[in-house]
């Protein structure tokens, strides 16, 4: 296998994916179900929204009374009470709005954190087989920009949706109580705004989803180009990829401008509808006021409250556009969470496979066949083999013969299409991946080193290891000499993929993980494939030391490793052939 962390750590994730029974529900409904952790903050936002509604009605009533009282020539003493009450209502409304927004922002932060954690945990539990079929840039964009774009949904759209339901109803009731004619007009014109908003929203949804797809495509392609830039420069293809990125960027810019154009036009439509409805009420109230058919205070109350009835609906339309990207990203996030875990990763009823003593570690493959979906030919065909406790077995064969796939089966990254893998007589299918991997140390062909200290990268083999144990593992792997020469020693920071180290040094750190893990089964995937001969000889000596007293399965083409093996197995087009080491070297 081409990548990996060196020693497989037991999984700790507890999330088994999304609620697949609710897969037919829209992302907004699913998001509300995911927001259970933020229920307290959302409840506070709802309560404060109701308070804001009550204060809106109180503000209009107090202002109409104050203006009517002033129009009758009342003095400041008479107006003082109404003005003070109005000021208190204004302050209360501002405080309620601020508190509601703060609670919604806090709810958004909690939901984003939980969703990002669930995405990461579920993607990790789906394993390397699923991850290799995904674009790393797309998943990165989804868990960063995509999840962050949920902020407007929770902090703006949900509060606006609540006010759009409660405020118009409260205003309509209060206006109808004061003047039923105006109430009828408002009731007749209010539905126009949500109807127009829904029509525009359907069009906006399609455009926003296209914008999000282009953004993830751009992120994924850009990451691939950056990682492969040295190769592209050597082959003279950097300019071509730059043109591709330019084209995708142009498509994303065009899609973004289309979304913005729809947003501005929809705002114009909603503002126009609200303005016309408000004007209609104002005209009929004005005419009746001139004719003496409505009181001055009542007319003022109606005129002050009428815009408040339409304002929340207009705000809802605007916030819908602001939150559209978040709901589009949420749809993709929920697709990932809905991806079912393979049975061997989701858990098995038979309990964990244990290896309590050396005699119980016999590994047997009985007629194991593996065929990947979409491939016409099986990768492995009826492979049968056994590895005895403490045996050193080398697996060789041409590229593409299925060697890495066989290791993937033993690591429980994938399950066989047919056949059976047994450990100590127990079916490996009855074990959870985490339980089984506790018995394995894995050194891949290109070990992955993370951005962190040297000690942190080695301790992936055993997160609870003490500093002395980490140093001892590094010493056994022959890594101590170059580690102490680094600025900071074991605390020296490594860049991502540890590109500031040589290939041999990276391989030694991976072997140090395996020493630290001290597992009874050691799996190695061509650990010296990309090293010079001198470094390869040193690594082979370390591997011999690491394999002492352990069961070892080593994928290799190296003659020295073939010659030193207890047994050599050759895979050819998915079929297994057995040769002794001498014959294998001669055949090679």
Short recap of the structure:
The protein has 588 residues and is of the alpha/beta class. Helices cover 63% and strands 10% of the residues. The longest helix has 56 residues, at 76-131.
What do these coordinates show?
The protein has a six-stranded mixed β-sheet, with helices on both faces. Strands 2-1-4-5 form a four-stranded antiparallel β-sheet, with helices on one face. The protein is α/β, with parallel strands linked by helices. Helix content is 63%, strand content 10%. It has helices at 27-34, 39-71, 76-131, 136-148, 151-178, 180-189, 192-227, 229-235, 238-290, 296-338, 343-346, 403-410, 433-437, 454-458, 467-476, 480-485, 503-517, 533-547, 559-564, 581-587; strands at residues 363-370, 380-387, 392-396, 418-423, 426-427, 440-443, 452-453, 493-494, 521-525, 551-555, 567-572, 575-579. It folds into two domains: 26-341, Up-down Bundle (ABC transporter transmembrane region fold), CATH 1.20.1560; 346-587, Rossmann fold (3-Layer(aba) Sandwich). A hairpin with a 2-residue loop joins strand 11 (567-572) and strand 12. Helix 2 packs antiparallel against helix 10 (296-338) and helix 7 (192-227) runs antiparallel to helix 9 (238-290).
Notable features of this structure?
588 residues, alpha/beta, ABC transporter transmembrane region fold, 2 domains, four-stranded antiparallel beta sheet, 20 helices, elongated, disordered N terminus, disordered C terminus
